[in-house]
Write a structure and sequence with these properties.
The complex is a heterodimer of chains A (395) and B (381). Chain A is an alpha/beta fold. Chain A has helices spanning 19-25, 41-61, 74-88, 104-115, 133-139, 162-171, 232-235, 243-256, 260-281, 308-317, 337-341, 346-350, 363-382, 385-392, and strands at 7-8, 68-71, 95-99, 119-123, 144-148, 175-179, 198-202, 213-217, 285-287, 298-303, 320-321, 352-356. In chain A, α9 runs parallel beside α13 and α10 packs across α13 (363-382). The model of chain A is unreliable at 326-330 (pLDDT under 50). A 7-stranded mixed beta sheet of chain B has the order 2-8-7-6-5-3-4, sandwiched between helices. A 3-stranded antiparallel beta sheet of chain B has the order 9-10-12. The two termini of chain B are 31 Å apart. The mean pLDDT of chain B is 95. Chain B has 2 domains: 4-12 and 254-380, Aspartate Aminotransferase, domain 1 (Alpha-Beta Complex); 16-252, 3-Layer(aba) Sandwich (Aspartate Aminotransferase, domain 2), CATH 3.40.640.10. Bound molecules: pyridoxal-5'-phosphate (2 copies). Chain B: Belongs to the class-V pyridoxal-phosphate-dependent aminotransferase family. NifS/IscS subfamily. Chain B: Its cofactor is pyridoxal 5'-phosphate.
Chain lengths: 395, 381
């Protein structure tokens, strides 16, 4: 029953590493292994490699190199941004605004801060997952020190009106952080034009290595350190630098942002054909997330009457790798907080599937999924008492 | 000589097998270990193997190993994870900055910290430790091996004293410079938390681990998706972690032989240093100092100048710990704390060995030292 064909459509969970990226990294595992803090040539060469990567990251988002700090991943960047800004600005106020559909790296950090005496407003989203700007504006108080809204959602792919939020935050003199982990390489980003004060990113979502990310912090924004230690990252983040990882991040972001438009056009065309095919071939199916303002590779659909877990298992046996929600919460049986926030009832949320397309996906992949998926859904529905009742009950 | 790398306490060259493992993971196990599909399961299996290997390095259970982005994060996680508001913490004056800076920050937020002094060998005084433990002491954090002078703390005695005085105190050991250099049996040592870092044992940079004794609950430093049993969130750095596993496995095998080899290098080095005048050895060849660190003060020269002179011979050494060697003002807190005079602090060089180094490299270095010193010392006069 095991299939030979492999169709990886879980790029939102993590991507493969591009060969060029791996190649760029390898010398830093071998001859160029020096500690970037060492003062001799071997160390200085490592230092320049890191600074070169920093320039690449800065360029990709329109920041200055000295505004980029490397981290151990997206979650660390998120935790640092939120805790760092909260604790450093506590004298000014204790109110933070975020949304109900953030990644858990943000939500759980906010919950932690609530226990520390901070107040957090979790702004709602509409049925497409777009943040309610009025509610956001109305929740601002004199005590608001931070707004954190994700650029694009990891589950339903909805892209937020970041420029508008940036403008609102700027007018009110509030620090604005955005979790752009899913957005890099898929959306044009310029932190200056968009009034973004802090931005998180993670290399493994754009064909770079795992275990490395970055936080952009606009010059002049004060945040406390999360990881204290040696003088690395201009004394803002202790720890011997993940030299090969940082080099890989630099290479990956350079490649990912070289031609965003071209990349998007190709992925979007594939995605749209797959999505339209699914909606056409499988009845009682609903698209989650915004129809247009969404990540080019993202599909999130709910199939009525079935369970996502069973669906995933059968897809897996056919060599199709997708996800029911975000990878990190896939161990839990609770329905996704994002799907609940856009108003899906529990039973519908449970029958959801996320397919996230990436660079290596092909027309043949799409054909294959369109061939296999409808049959699997039908098979599961045929076993579903809910479906049986529904059919019997007549429409 | 091609290249003599005597700076293995700053970082090590990853083993070929490690690089192969890292590349293999990047190419063939790129799935997210948390994903439910087969690619994810493959990655999860790799995680499990690596965890077992790292656990074995210190005699822990696999489920007691939490992977981090390095030794510094492990130290930060351990300290911030067990303290309670306003509690008392005991440490030493010669800890790594990833411990000291955390504690300095905590002091500003109402915590009380005792910094134990060290004797001329660089070892804490057990009596001072005993007298410092109070009712509200929550944590004793002490490094196993110092990164600059290689002094080995009597961890077993430290634990014994702590347990005797106050059972609620947790003991954290920064073993970044000790793992793979001293046989560690964590169950016998009876410590609660221990930090490790892969790049000091020929593993990749950007990955480390925190041992957390079963039953201890930590407040996480990085919250999110709940990876690593909720203690450390974030998509796992599988290639790095798996490379760490390979490095741990390699260094664990015949560890005693490796230790003896490195000791032999140090012994030979010290023997040959007799040919050079006006030096002070800050990390003698004895049971209180690790075999892979040799810290020597050369009178009449500045360490940094000598470092660069040696570089011309393709010999790489360090003046202090790499992570703070940039700023002169911040570097020298360890050497003064063992009572070194300023001129000896200024002229200190750290040679740090790995078992892949050879005695021939020492002989070559001695010749280079002689030539460099005769030139530099003459210049100074
Ligand atoms: C004793 C000690 N602790 C902690 C660290 C920090 O480890 P890492 O550089 O992996 O963050 C180091 C090395 O830099 C060290 O020597
Ligand atoms: C939107 C978003 N933020 C943060 C993260 C966390 O990044 P990482 O897993 O690299 O820590 C992820 C992915 O897991 C994500 O999708």
């Amino acid at each position: 029953m095991d299939s030979k064909r492999i169709v990886y459509m879980d790029h939102a969970a993590t991507t493969y590493v591009k060969p060029e990226v791996l190649e760029a990294m390898l010398p830093y595992f071998t001859e160029q292994f020096g500690n970037p803090s060492s003062v001799y040539t071997l160390g200085r060469k490592s230092r320049s490699a890191i600074e070169e990567a920093r320039e690449k990251v800065a360029k990709a988002i329109g920041a200055l190199p000295e505004e980029i700090y490397f981290t151990g991943g997206g979650s660390e960047a998120d935790n640092w941004a939120i805790k760092g800004a909260a604790f450093a600005n506590r004298a000014k106020g204790n109110h933070i605004i975020t949304s109900k559909i953030e990644h858990h790296a943000i939500l759980n950090t906010c919950e932690f801060l609530e226990k520390q005496g901070f107040e957090v407003t979790y702004v709602s989203v509409d049925e497409n997952g777009v943040i309610d700007l009025e509610e956001l504006k109305n929740s601002i108080t004199d005590k608001t020190i931070l707004i954190s809204i994700m650029f694009a959602n990891n589950e339903i792919g909805t892209i937020q009106p970041i420029e508008e939020i940036g403008r609102i935050a700027k007018e009110r003199g509030i620090i604005f952080h955005t979790d752009a982990v899913q957005a890099i390489g898929n959306v044009e980003i310029n932190v200056k034009d968009m009034n973004i004060d802090m931005l998180s990113l993670a290399a493994h979502k754009f064909y770079g290595p795992k275990g490395v990310g970055a936080l952009y912090v606009r010059k002049g924004i004060r945040i406390e350190n999360l990881i204290h230690g040696g003088g690395q990252e201009r004394k803002r983040r202790g720890g011997t630098e993940n030299l090969p990882g940082i080099v890989g991040l630099g290479k990956a972001i350079e490649l990912a942002t070289a031609d965003i438009e071209g990349h998007n056009a190709r992925i979007r065309a594939l995605r749209d054909r797959l999505l339209n095919g699914i909606l056409e071939k499988i009845p009682y199916t609903k698209l989650n997330g915004h129809p247009e303002k969404r990540l080019p590779g993202n599909i999130n659909v709910s199939f009525k009457f079935i369970e996502g877990e069973g669906l995933l298992l059968l897809l897996d046996q056919s060599g199709i790798y997708g996800s029911t929600g975000s990878a990190c919460s896939s161990g839990s049986l609770d329905p996704s907080h994002v799907l609940l926030a856009i108003g899906l009832p529990h039973e519908i949320a449970h029958g959801s599937l996320r397919l996230s397309l990436g660079d290596k996906n092909t027309e043949e992949d799409v054909d294959y999924v369109l061939d296999v998926l409808p049959k699997i859904v039908q098979r599961l529905r045929d076993m579903s008492p809910l479906y049986e009742n529904f059919i019997k009950g007549g429409r | 000589m091609k290249l003599v790398y005597f700076d293995n306490s700053a970082t090590t060259r990853p083993h070929r097998e490690v690089v192969k493992e890292v590349s293999d993971c990047m190419e063939n196990y790129f799935g997210n270990p948390s994903s439910a599909h087969r690619l994810g399961l493959g990655a999860e299996k790799k995680m499990k193997q690596a965890r077992e290997k790292v656990a074995r390095l210190i005699g822990a259970l696999p489920q007691e190993i939490i992977f981090t982005s390095g030794g510094s994060e492990a130290n930060n996680t351990a300290i911030k994870g067990v303290i309670t508001p306003g509690c008392h913490i005991i440490t030493s004056k010669i800890e790594h900055p990833s411990v000291l800076r955390v504690l300095q920050k905590l002091e500003k937020s109402g915590y009380e910290v005792t910094y134990l002094s060290v004797d001329s060998r660089g070892i804490i005084k057990l009596e001072e430790l005993e007298n410092s433990i109070k009712d509200n002491t929550k944590l004793v954090t002490i490094m196993y091996v110092n990164n600059e002078i290689g002094s080995i703390q009597p961890v077993d005695k430290i634990v014994e004293i702590v347990r005797k005085k106050n059972k609620r105190v947790k003991v954290h050991i920064d073993a970044v410079q000790a793992a793979g250099k001293i046989p560690i049996d964590i169950k016998k040592l009876d410590v609660d938390l221990m930090s490790l870092s892969a790049h000091k044992i020929h593993g990749p940079k950007g990955v480390g681990a925190l041992y957390v004794r079963k039953g201890i609950k930590l407040e996480p430093l990085i919250l999110g998706g709940g990876q690593e049993w909720e203690v450390r969130s974030g998509t796992e750095n599988l290639p790095g972690i798996s490379g760490f596993g390979v490095a741990a496995e390699i260094i664990s095998s015949n560890l005693n032989e490796k230790i003896e080899h490195v000791k032999g290098i140090k012994k030979h080095f010290i023997e040959r240093l007799k040919e050079i005048d006006n030096i002070v050895i800050n990390s003698p060849y004895d049971d209180n100092h690790i075999g892979n660190i040799l810290n020597v003060s050369f009178e009449g020269v500045r360490g940094e100048v000598l470092l660069h002179a040696l570089e011309d011979y393709n010999i790489f050494v360090s003046t202090g710990s790499a992570c703070s060697s940039k700023k002169v003002s911040e570097k020298n807190y360890v050497l003064p704390s063992i009572g070194l005079k300023e001129c000896h602090v200024e002229g200190a060089i750290r040679f740090s060995f790995s078992y892949i180094n050879t005695v021939d490299e020492v002989d070559y270095t001695i010749e280079a030292l002689k030539k460099s010193l005769s030139f530099l010392r003459r210049l100074k006069k």
